């Protein structure tokens, strides 16, 4: 027998049961039982004293003593329960049965030494155990270890597949243990991170001596999982670097230098300088760059992107910048164009609504190389869009682009362009460490100087008048205001009606001010006009749906009122808030909600009022929504870890990542003797089936 032996050959299983187990639990080989981890343990390793029960309420315990009194008690409307006094030398508790037969009642031994086992309850200072297990033989009752409780169901139990069954099968397997379970981690790694062996881990995860040995087993198994996962990504990255050729951008030339010296509207933050350097070093080498640029909303990613494009240009290459929405692409286009005015660098915008005539010109100019910087939406990906020599592709707001779409960019040049992916909101640390480990990551962890932290407040309907008055005062000071409304697709018509009504109220209240509106039903030209009207300062108020969520940049806007804020997700709220606080003025974000909030909405609102830090917010968001949702639908299913918890196990993930990096840094081919067992295991596991597919 080995780990790959089909389960039908296990004692007590056979072909029929094997088929059933396979159907219900998906098990096919012996190893599946070993990785069927207990949910929790029952502690039958010791006997408690009644005097020490206070700390053990709601856990399962064993007591040794005698029943001194047994009687039926009538309660409620004629129901009876059986109640016993159980006493040891330190005190008394109650044992109760709500379901019992006369026969059973007679079987309960009185005044003899017993071991009782069950879950301890406490009510008004009185301890009790309902439906306890009773054992008269102490040797049978006390086991040498904690006993596993497996995830089960009544359906399984009916077929004899109850907890006892799983305990039996697993303990049979473990008895053959030494020959079965080969170590798969290098000794050096196990020593450094103080990990127990794989054998011991499997043993102690199922039958731990005590809580401490269960913890050690848990940690080892989690580490192993994180380690193998990181290794698969790291090897992919190494493979990519050794095979993916790229155009080396050897020098920094006139365009960059001139812009940097003459046109830069502000001093770069140290973080911007650092990530720019990382990008430059990447692009210098004849290997395709694959880099993720992380930075909070407003941290200045666009400027870094622009400077990278200038380096491409200095080396004779074209670049393109893609955004997921038309509005955002337009915004980028305007800001890039403005920054590059009075230079002879040609910039154009290509989106779904670009007119055919203009489109044709763009296509021609891209082919001839006359057009060097293209900003756009998905339209850029179309096959008809051909470049003379695309050297750099920047993708903003990465979550909204699918993997396949990104791959199409690679094909835009014989030697694929360098890729820089920019995220809209920070990704939780553990996710970034896990799922982007085949990308190099740069982080802008510093905001431009002079920014005042946005003040965020939670208000309810009854405060509306004061919120409006406050907004009015801010307008009098020369500021601009956003009012944002949620839009949920299922009731689009209703939402739309709602938006129009509110627009009316705002126009009435802010009489004499210009109010403009932006929503998803408008044509691109209309949206563009509305946006320009607001951006130019002609309108003081913008009433909008979440179309303004990403990237919109109007520094003079200092108040963001988010209506029905409980209907927005956390990262969305943070994105929206990021539309203010872009200038030197004190900015405000007001979250309007109804009076009744769910627990989760309260957490979201509270998090928003407590912090401006996007990294912190993303952590809370992950706790609320789970990692799968944060990564986006295209990547769901990649978080199917058996033991590892991406939310709670940050430390282990970091340790495993360090271990993998360290190991590959000095032996990328795993040739060291100490790594042979790892290599063997890894090759067997991943041959032909890459469990964790490419992400970028
Ligand atoms: P995001 O990272 O969210 O894309 P942006 O690139 O839109 O942020 O930048 C937000 C605002 O900050 C813009 O108005 C931009 O001009 C400004 N900005 C960027 N870098 C700096 C800096 N180093 N100093 C001052 N302002 C900056
Ligand atoms: Mg941006």
From TrEMBL:
CDD domains: DEXHc_RecG, RecG_wedge_OBF. Residues 463-628 form the Helicase C-terminal domain. GO terms for molecular function: DNA helicase activity; hydrolase activity. It catalyses: Couples ATP hydrolysis with the unwinding of duplex DNA by translocating in the 3'-5' direction; ATP + H2O = ADP + phosphate + H(+). It comes from the Bacteria. Keywords: ATP-binding, DNA damage, DNA recombination, DNA repair, DNA-binding, Helicase, Hydrolase, Isomerase, Nucleotide-binding. Its EC number is 5.6.2.4. It is an enzyme of class 5 (isomerase). SUPFAM superfamilies: Nucleic acid-binding proteins, P-loop containing nucleoside triphosphate hydrolases. The keyword Transport does not apply. Plays a critical role in recombination and DNA repair. Helps process Holliday junction intermediates to mature products by catalyzing branch migration. Has replication fork regression activity, unwinds stalled or blocked replication forks to make a HJ that can be resolved. Has a DNA unwinding activity characteristic of a DNA helicase with 3'-5' polarity. This is ATP-dependent DNA helicase RecG. It comes from Kaistella pullorum. The gene is recG.
